[in-house]
Design brief:
The structure is a homodimer.
Chain A lengths: L3 H8 L3 H9 L6 H14 L5 H8 L4 E6 L5 H16 L3 E6 L4 H13 L4 E4 L6 H10 L3 E4 L10 E4 L1 H14 L5 E5 L5 H16 L9 E3 L4 H13 L6 E4 L2 H13 L9 E6 L2 H5 L5 E4 L2 H16 L11 E2 L2 E3 L12
Parallel strand pairs in A: 1-2, 1-3, 3-4, 4-5, 5-11, 6-7, 6-8, 8-9, 9-10
Antiparallel strand pairs in A: 10-12
Helix pairs in contact in A: 1-2, 1-3, 2-3, 5-13, 8-9, 10-11
The structure holds a DNA duplex (16 and 16 nucleotides).
DNA sequence: ATGAAAGCGCTAACAA
DNA sequence: TTGTTAGCGCTTTCAT
């Protein structure tokens, strides 16, 4: 690996000049610039970005911590963030927390130890209190898909209350009145918010949320299968189900299948997320879409802006709206189709 | 941010001693160590890992370039690599190529510019020739899920020939003789290898590969849907289909559904990959499993070993075997179940 | 427009 | 066991 010093020797100039020729071309004479270019070429010189970072105190690197990379949910957000950052010459260091609080804590710290200018955190395990403490302690952090009122301007999030309301509104508009729901774990604010919006919207239609038709899941398919079985075996009838994740909808569909129930003829189902899975289920799943890629990209840009103390933080969209994607899993009771 | 110099002053020792106390505790007196610990605590000192890297010429960072992070295929491998590396104190810098050859080239280079000790590449767009050139030029690189005979010991891969053979064997064992297949793009070695193994295995059973029943897809569902429609509308009959990815199987299933064909009663389908999608399809998809997480982990470990010029490169499993996961999409013609 | 020199935060000989 | 002195590869004053 050639160093700047070797380039300087070869070009017959000082290292400072090489540095300038490369980074501030307007500050150097055309002739010198040519000599430098030439030397750079022949040596195949490439600046050591770590050394550049140390000297200039800017690593042009953003960190991100998520539970895991293997799921479409996290993968899509990371993809959005990475692409957005790459466009502005930034790199992403990704670390997974292993779905544990301790993992989140250490990943967060460790990314700063690597001189990330800012870190994007998708916290799942940290209690709100501790999370607030971290946001306070590490001002160069932004929360992805999470809303912490105290740190409003460092959060990129989906309006989950509205997302839940959208699901209810869709089902009600299709004529459903007896509606069951399988939520995420209540320790997740997303789950609570979606349920809250769902309940409020039902209330507006004069439908009380029925506790007997409300089950707490964990966003995964297996548990949703169990919950749905229990719901189906219970005494209460219902014509529609809202699942707070597409994966849970998949589990619920499986339960229906085993009970010989047809979707949407016997029971309608609406999911949440709109990951690829949704359109591969049968029937194709009507769901509430989260713009995950956009959320990831916004988190990347916000992290960059925060790191640079850029004034246009305000210009970055931080609150996203869900949207229902209508497919084939909800029956219209009004028309019967 | 406290620096090592401040710690040194506070502890009344030299920076060298602080460095030793932290990195080679056995080399320093217990009393001094205590003083240092104390200073570290009170200042909240954390070593700047970038500076450490520059000084010690080891960044403890591995890079990885993939097409994108959003799909389960890449996500799962990255997850495997990241976890394996985290365990040994290494970090992963991830960069996506944007599914273009130029993206792969620049990502590869740029990760080395960031002083990654080694980089893991999942190449999709680079021609074999150029890929070979890069492996030659960058000895600290390993290929993930790709086999380049010239660089045997820097590749972690699935035996795709055997994978294809497994699919054929399964179908033949179930009594199928008229078998169609939708492959990946032939520009991908995976696609060619799987087809080769598939053809060889069929040949062993005395079944020639029928060109009219062989269609080239692109691993995606949409194109598989088109191909399957064409196959179904064609003059040749067949009882089974092998798709080289689960996503394509999903597309093919959709085509069957639109034609009113039942799976597996009218037509059997076997996929490849065994991503989450497979068990969510209906019927649940019988498929050839790739151990993606293990492959990713092995790639991470191999990259580390290569970077460290470790002798136990040989000890890392580099060749993985596929395995068929039997679910419900293949009918046994022998028993009719 | 260019060079000399200092320094980013740390490690690693070499002495003592 | 500890301190001194050089760097690692670069950027950035400050002179010239």
């Amino acid at each position: 690996m050639a160093t700047i010093a070797q380039v300087a020797v070869k070009a017959g100039v000082s290292t400072a000049t090489v540095s300038r020729a490369l980074n501030k071309p307007e500050m150097v004479d055309a002739k010198t610039k040519a000599k430098v270019q030439e030397a750079v070429q022949s040596l195949g010189y490439r600046p050591n970005q770590v050394a550049q970072g140390l000297a200039s105190r800017s690593s042009r690197t953003i960190g991100v911590v998520v539970n895991q990379f293997g799921s479409a949910y996290y993968g899509t957000m990371i993809d959005g963030a990475e692409r957005a950052l790459r466009k502005i010459g930034y790199k992403l260091i990704a670390e997974s927390s292993g779905e544990a609080a301790e993992g989140e804590r250490s990943a967060w710290q460790s990314l700063f130890d690597r001189q990330c200018e800012a870190v994007i955190v998708h916290s799942d395990a940290l209690a709100e209190e501790e999370l607030t403490g971290f946001m306070e302690k590490h001002p160069m952090s932004v929360l992805m898909n999470r809303h912490l009122p105290d740190y409003e301007d460092r959060c990129v999030y989906l309006d989950n209350i509205r997302g839940g309301a959208l699901a209810a509104a869709h089902l009600v508009a299709k004529g459903h009145r007896k509606i069951a729901t399988i939520t995420g774990p209540f320790s997740y604010h997303e789950a609570r918010d979606r349920l809250k919006g769902f309940e409020q919207q039902l209330a507006e239609a004069g439908i009380p949320l029925d506790p007997d038709l409300t089950a707490e899941g964990n966003f995964k398919d297996d548990m949703a299968f169990e919950r749905m079985m229990a719901l189906l075996n219970g005494p209460k009838e219902f014509t529609a189900l809202f699942c707070q994740s597409d994966e849970m909808a998949a589990g619920a569909i499986e339960a229906c299948r085993q009970k010989g129930l047809r979707i949407p003829d016997d029971i309608s189902i609406i999911g949440f997320d709109d990951v690829d899975l949704a359109r591969h289920l049968s029937p194709k799943l009507t769901t509430v879409r989260q713009p995950l890629r956009e959320i990831g990209a916004a988190a990347g840009l916000l992290a960059h802006a925060v790191a640079r103390k850029s004034p246009d933080i305000e210009g970055i969209c931080r609150s996203f709206e869900a949207e229902v994607i209508e497919r084939a899993s909800v029956l219209d009771l009004n028309t019967g189709s």
